Amino acid sequence: MLFKSRWISSSEQVSASSNPLVAITARTLDHSGTVVQHCDVWYVPLAWEDDKEHWKRFDRFSSPTTQSVAVGQYKMWANHNGKDGNRTPVNPGDDEQPTKNVDLDAP
Asked: What is the CATH number of the domain that holds 93?
């Protein structure tokens, strides 16, 4: 929650929005670093990682794909052909920027 506190304390961010959102751009890559297309990208607040009811999917397939997400701590992962990639910790807002890029392992 330190990220949210810093975000809200920043006068630039408060003027931009009372509900701080960060545009996350996710790329899905295989083990060699090659882009894998047509993956679902999923995210969940860290505290709810094991509760599927809190999982959310980006609106579009990768790669890349962008989704606005509230400042906080999340796990994000790619799903391709019914298989999940590794869950990656992602903390939008930790750098107090309105955008964040993330590379996710494609299964």
From this structure: 2.60.40.1120
Distance CA 3, CA 53 (A): 24
**Among the listed ranges 14-18, 20-24, 31-35, 50-54, which one has the minimum average pLDDT value?**
14-18
Instruction: Read off the pLDDT of residues 75-96 as tens digits, 9 standing for 90 and up.
Output: 999 999 999 999 999 999 999 9
CA within 13 Å, CB half, 33: 0
Extract the runs of DSSP E, i.e. beta strands, from 1-107.
Answer: 21-29, 40-45, 56-57, 65-70, 74-80, 83-84, 88-90, 99-105
Tally of domains in the chain = 1
Look at residue 6 and tell me whether its pLDDT is greater than 70: no
Q: The whole model's pTM is what?
A: 0.82
Q: Tell me if residue 18 falls in helix, strand or coil.
A: coil
Domain that holds residue 59: 2-105
- 13 CA to centre of own chain: 19
